[in-house]
Amino acid sequence: MIKVGDTLPAATLMEFSEVEGNGCSIGPNAVDVTKATAGKTIALFALPGAFTPTCSAKHVPGYAEHAADFKAAGVAEIWCVSVNDAFVMGAWAREQKTDGKVRMLADGSAAFAQATGLTLDLTARGMGLRSNRYSMLVKDGKVISLNVEGPGKFEVSDAATLLAQAKA
Question: CA-CA 20 to 30 A from 38: which of 4, 31, 32, 58?
């Protein structure tokens, strides 16, 4: 499992853009994790699935609500990563109104989740291999804080906890 001090794995996440702009085309766009984190501080949180109860009611809204606070603390971007396809993440972004606040990034094949060692097997619940719920602060591609939730918990990966770490 990835730990504080480790470099994020080289992986490609996918992002759906609603409109053209900033050099992005409409549709799924590849996001090279190594390039996208270079020289930046990223608040990254991951969760089991788009449109799921805790993720939709608490996890994403907390980060969207505190987006300006994260920026003030020196965080360049907030990333939400989930094992869903880019179209689902795009629809969820629209529903959660995250535009300009949280980048909703798809890990469709769970490659990033597997590379970090932070997977959650929800096969018995019909959801397959997913990402565990966690948050991390990443500076220039290196993990500087990591908060991994226990099974079924939402206690340490919330926006307030990661924001306090970003301000420290």
Answer: 58
- Which three-class secondary structure string do you get for the chain? CCCCCCECCCCEEEEEECCCECCECCEEEEEEHHHHHCCCEEEEEEECCCCCHHHHHHHHHHHHHCHHHHHHCCCCEEEEEECCCHHHHHHHHHHHCCCCCCEEEECCCCHHHHHHCCEEEEHHHCCEEEECCEEEEEECCEEEEEEECCCCCCCCCCHHHHHHHHHC
User: pTM, whole model, 2 decimals?
Assistant: 0.93
* pLDDT at 14 exceeding the cut of 70: yes
Domain boundaries, the chain: 12-167
Write down the CATH number for the domain with range 12-167. 3.40.30.10
List pLDDT tens digits, range 102-130: 999 999 999 999 999 999 888 888 777 88
pLDDT of residue 110: 96
Choose, from 8, 43, 44, 55, the residue flagged as catalytic: 55
